[in-house]
Design goal:
The complex is a heterotrimer of chains A (343), B (372) and C (399). With 372 residues, chain B is mostly helical. Helix content of chain B is 67%, strand content 0%. Mean pLDDT of chain B is 83; it is low at 1-17 and 359-369. Classes of the chains: A alpha/beta (343), B mainly alpha (372), C alpha+beta (399). At the A-B interface, helix 1, helix 2, strand 5, helix 4 and helix 7 of A face helix 5, helix 8 and helix 9 of B.
Chain lengths: 343, 372, 399
């Protein structure tokens, strides 16, 4: 019913005359609760492993699962989330204008984006670096040999800026072939329109699978940047930011504690670890402190599993991408995943 | 923009139907004969290739690319994905709703040119004017018996039809008001209408769509939200209204002063004069131009691709990157092309029928409004 | 709008000074004035609400505003530019690059679509039946398909059917064609020298035309003799300059051809789509224009013994042009706006690099949208102004 109302209202332009609701603290959370769903900006549906849209209109991937986790935390139901496919070029503007609540769209955390665009990265769900995908037959084995090459890159991304910086500082020449979508970039690479396609290495490993002959392509060993990818929110709702951040921490902490999708219900009842008890809402009022149900973390983990399970499902050995976890492993195992204490 | 009114010789000469005339003409001019033969030969070569690729060597049923005959078209791609191309990501059980939204416009158009029967005009008028509201309500659902379906799941031909029809229908009353305002005797009204029309006509639709999706939420009161589809639709509607307003104005300019004076003498007020005397004549005289504008608008709905809506064209383009069906761009584009061509050509034929009904034939190319 | 409002206030005061109007006409004027004031008031209210909402929304999101970003370093590179640009260029320069690229596409598109449109339009009314049928078929096929489909089609065709750069088609050893672009030779001192060449060619053409007009008393716009003279002049100029300064012939070095001029495939696809699509509409305008000329004119010219070609050139086309100008101007305006589709194929036009990438990076949505809109409104208004100037000129001739 609200859909109809909104649609008709906006269509007729009447919304302009509607009386403005006063914006105050908790604006984003309030809007989400009122409409009963989270609106998450994602890729256009072809980022294998991160966010893909299948034929039946179902979204899957690590970023998608993160959005579901936030919906589960806020609304108690992981299905109460709507995904808005965005080209990278328009993604930040969409978040700024308020047409999405949150972006989970392989966006790199940088100083200027964080400050100038008035966004907050709530954390990092994937530590990545920029690499290059080339055809094996090209006879190139390292980046320096790409001097003078045409390089495919997505418009408006940090990879476009890093590429410019790297080639400039290393006195290498190149021609940027800038496309809006990963599909166009891959089509260009396959047709030989460009010699290499540059993106985050995780994205490249996944993209390779979308090519006609994946085995004819390889990723160069060079990594030219740090690409911490994370969910982004607007700066105007600190509480929503906290919900986003602690949802991510909960996913990591759950892996650390060995809580899985399967055992979460049992752990919530029987665990004697005080930290687990606090996380899962057995003791204390940690949910209320975030304005959530006390068992919010149970809903989250029951819906999507812990970080390790999510990674495994979409990017790891159990998935077609077969990406090494690299830095995206727990700090106890030499990785960068480190959840603050639940205390 | 002057509505060029031309009374040249009829376009439809009956030359083509008579092979004898053709031969005689060709024989009379040897150079012409040569050109004729070359063109016929080229047409034969091209035609033969198309038939061989598209029909004779084509594969209609297969599970993926490898099941297709490499020498011909792989229509299996289109066949397998047809439900998605037609209905987007609309839930399978609810597709009858999308189907109804797709079939209603062509049905109404056929009714519009159908032989006269009692109440036909009323049904057509009501159908067209209520379409946006009914189609939106039907597709969005949320009523008992109609489960709610989020606009993000609408797509394919359903979305194309919905956007095209809704933008046209919603822009029509706006266009009439703008045209009346622009020809009004009140200078402020004229100025405002002219400014509005020239603004929307002067911007690329791509930019308008960016603006409406990125900027409109900034204009709305905080807390009020609108789905991306509605925002895009609002942009297209203003764009279309500006073009249509100029078409209607062309019609208004053709109405003689005597009509106004006579209506005034009969004691008609402003609105009844417009409604009963002026507009019926003005609109009838520009039916071909209105249909042209509708065709242009229908083709322009493809631009919603740039703001990430999955209309017919975009959903086919998205399907092209499916690893199972890679490299089938030709089949996908031909499918989209055939649908657009059939609908647009059908509409222009219909307008030609109207034209024959109206007095005097006029060439369609010079109709008010640029081809878009 | 403010001046109009001031006028209205003026008028209102005048009406007040005259005193209570008695006549019906004065009353009607007062009502009209009131209506307009109400309208302007309502508009001002709407504008106020929108501006207030925007300010509230921008503040709520803590967004910066102002045009200072135009001097900031953009940090990204552009694949095709008419002026020097690199990753250290400012957003202001990116704006300029995008603007020039948009203008280039529009200019080339307009010229090419007009030429092709005239050819097809003349074929539409030609006595040759297959030519007529074929041109009609072309028009009906092309104009009933969306422009965006044409564009994607051409992009796909160029990308998939042309060879890769290593297997580029050799066009006489001086030009090469691959799916990375068309490589053409350029004078070694490009672009300074080529500018001189261009000026030389234009001067030669104008001189030739003037010569032709005088010698042939305007009967032939371009006689074969003059055409040959001009062609010879231009050719001599080109060859002469090549001998002096040498040619920069593209050659395969490393990953790509170096030297000469490179026309990128995205640009080619965009221009091809814009040209072929708009040519169909221009053909219809040309046909309608020609058919608008009264049959009596043709008969009279035939009676005077003019050849069909001369009738077309001296009698039909000059009269048809007057009818063709307004719809043609609309078509040009459409083509200029449609060049913004460059963003779909990744050609760096204004909408793509400025309203797209720059907006995403700086977040100055309002400023960038206003600047982009101003550019297009100026361009389309410019087309309108030139058209009305031309129409006035043509009308004078008509008497």
């Amino acid at each position: 019913m609200t859909t109809i109302k909104h649609a008709i209202c906006a269509t007729l332009g009447l919304a302009i005359f509607a009386s403005p609701a006063v914006a105050d603290e908790g604006e984003t959370i309030g809007a989400i609760k009122e409409r009963g769903e989270l609106v998450c900006g994602t890729s256009t549906g072809t980022a294998i492993g991160l966010s893909t849209l299948d034929d039946s209109g179902k979204w899957t991937g690590l970023e998608v699962d993160y959005c579901r986790a936030v919906a589960a935390a806020l609304l108690g139901d992981a299905d109460k989330v709507r995904f808005v496919p965005l080209e990278f070029k328009n993604a930040f503007a969409a978040l700024q204008s308020g047409s999405v609540d949150m972006l989970a769209r392989a966006a790199t955390w940088t100083y200027s984006r964080d400050t100038e665009l008035k966004f907050d990265w709530v954390g990092v769900y994937m530590y990545d670096g920029q690499g290059f995908l080339v055809k094996k037959g090209l006879g190139v084995s390292e980046l320096a040999e790409l001097d003078g090459a045409s390089i495919c890159v997505s418009a408006g991304t940090t990879t476009e800026l890093n590429l410019a910086d790297y080639f400039r500082t290393h006195n290498l020449a190149y021609t940027p072939i800038v496309a809006n979508s990963r599909e166009q970039n891959l089509a260009n690479l396959e047709a030989g329109r460009c010699d290499a396609y540059t993106n985050e290495r995780g994205g490249l490993a996944a993209s390779r699978l979308g090519l006609g002959q994946p085995d004819d392509y390889m990723i160069l060993p060079d990594v030219i940047s740090k690409e911490p990818l994370g969910p982004i929110v607007r700066q105007n709702d600190p509480q929503f930011r906290d919900v986003g951040a602690w949802t991510l921490h909960a996913l990591v902490a759950a892996e650390e504690f060995g809580i899985t999708q399967e055992n979460v219900a049992a752990e919530a009842e029987t665990s004697q670890n005080p930290e687990i008890q606090r996380l899962l809402g057995k003791t204390g009022d940690f949910g209320a402190k975030l304005g959530l149900a006390n068992d919010w973390a149970v809903s989250v983990i029951a819906a999507v599993g812990n970080y390790g399970e999510i990674f495994e499902r979409h990017l790891g050995e159990g998935s077609p991408v077969k990406l090494d976890r690299g830095l995206n492993t727990l700090w106890t195992e030499g990785g960068l995943l480190y959840a603050p204490p639940i205390r | 923009m002057a509505a060029a009114r031309l009374h040249g010789p009829s376009i439809r000469r009956r030359f083509a139907s008579r092979a004898g005339v053709l031969l005689a003409m060709a024989a009379a001019h040897p150079f012409s004969l040569l050109v004729t033969l070359v063109l016929l030969y080229a047409a034969w070569i091209v035609g033969e290739r198309i038939v061989s690729w598209g029909i004779i060597h084509a594969t209609f049923i297969a599970d993926d690319r490898s099941g297709c005959n490499p020498g011909g078209a792989c229509w299996a791609f289109v066949v397998n994905r047809l439900p998605q191309f037609l209905f987007g990501f609309y839930p399978e059980a609810e597709r009858w709703r999308a189907l109804a939204a797709v079939l209603a416009p062509p049905a109404l158009m056929l009714l519009a040119v159908a032989p006269e029967f009692r109440g036909r005009r009323l049904v057509v008028a009501a159908g067209f004017s209520l379409y946006p509201l009914l189609a939106f309500a039907l597709l969005a659902g949320g009523l008992p018996g109609l489960p709610a379906v989020s606009t993000e799941r609408w797509g394919g031909l359903t979305l194309t039809m919905l956007v095209g029809m809704s933008a046209f229908v919603l822009s029509f009353p706006l266009a009439i008001l703008l045209a009346l305002a622009r020809t009004s005797s009140l200078p402020a009204l004229r100025l405002v209408a002219a400014g509005f029309i020239e603004f929307w006509r002067g911007l690329p639709l791509v930019a308008i769509l960016f603006m409406s999706v990125i900027m409109l939420p900034l204009f709305l009161p905080p807390g009020v939200e609108a789905p991306r589809l509605s925002l895009a639709l609002a942009g297209i509607t203003f764009y279309s209204a500006a073009y249509l307003a100029e078409v209607v104005r062309g019609g208004l300019q053709g109405i003689g002063r005597g009509q106004y004076e006579a209506a005034g003498a009969l004691g008609f007020g402003f609105w009844s004069m417009q409604g009963y005397v002026v507009l019926p004549q003005a609109l009838r005289s520009v039916v071909p131009a209105i249909v042209n504008a509708a065709i242009a608008l229908f083709k322009d709905t493809t631009y919603v691709m740039v703001v990430g809506l999955f209309d017919l064209l975009n959903i086919v383009v998205a399907g092209l990157s499916d690893a199972n069906w890679i490299g089938l761009a030709a089949e996908g584009y031909v499918f989209v092309g055939v649908i657009y061509w059939t609908i647009c050509f059908g509409m222009s034929r219909m307008s030609a029928r109207f034209e024959h009904g109206a007095q005097g034939a006029r060439p369609a190319g010079a109709a008010a409004g640029a081809g878009r | 709008m403010t001046t109009a409002a001031a006028d209205l206030v003026d008028e209102g005061e005048r009406a007040g000074r005259i005193g209570a109007p008695r006549s019906r006409q004065a009353r009607r004027r007062r009502v009209a004035l009131l209506q307009q004031l109400v309208l302007l008031g309502a508009l001002a209210a709407v504008a106020f609400v929108i501006v207030r909402n925007t300010i509230v929304n921008l503040q709520a999101r803590g967004l910066a505003s102002g045009f200072d970003f135009l001097w900031q370093e953009a940090g990204f590179n552009v694949g095709f530019s008419l002026i020097a640009v690199d990753a250290s260029s400012s957003y202001g320069r990116i704006f300029l690059v995008g603007l020039l690229n948009s203008l280039l596409v529009a200019a080339v598109g307009i010229v090419a679509a007009t030429l092709l449109g005239f050819v097809i339009g003349l074929a539409r009314v030609s006595p040759n039946v297959p030519a007529r049928l074929l041109s009609k078929g072309y028009v009906e096929l092309v104009r009933n398909l969306p422009l965006l489909l044409h564009l994607l089609l051409w992009q796909g065709v160029i990308l998939r059917s042309l060879p890769t750069v290593r297997e580029a088609l050799d066009l006489g050893g001086v030009a090469f064609l691959s799916n990375r672009g068309l490589y053409l030779p350029a004078p070694a001192a490009w672009p300074a020298m080529s500018l001189l060449l261009l000026i030389g060619a234009v001067v030669a053409t104008v001189a030739g035309l003037l010569l032709a007009r005088r010698t042939h008393r305007r009967q032939e716009l371009l006689s074969p003799l003059t055409a040959a003279t001009i062609a010879g002049l231009v050719l001599a100029l080109l060859v002469g300059s090549a001998a002096v300064i040498g040619w920069d012939v593209p050659a395969l070095k490393g990953f790509d051809y170096r030297g000469g001029i490179k026309i990128m495939p995205e640009l080619a696809a965009l221009i091809a789509a814009l040209t072929l699509y708009n040519a169909a509409f221009i053909a219809e305008i040309v046909r309608a224009g020609i058919q608008s000329v009264d049959e009596g004119q043709r008969q009279a010219a035939t009676a005077l013994g003019l050849s069909p070609r001369l009738i077309m050139r001296l009698v039909i086309v000059p009269q048809a042009i007057r009818v063709m100008v307004p719809p043609m101007a609309n078509q040009y305006a459409h083509l200029i706006k449609a060049s913004a589709l460059a963003t779909v194929v990744g050609f760096p036009d204004l909408v793509n690099v400025f309203m797209g990438t720059s907006l995403n990076q700086t977040g100055r949505a309002v400023e960038i949208v206003v600047m982009t809109a101003a550019v297009y409104l100026t361009l389309t208004a410019g087309v309108g102004l030139v058209t009305s100037w031309y129409e006035r000129r043509v009308k004078l001739v008509e008497r």
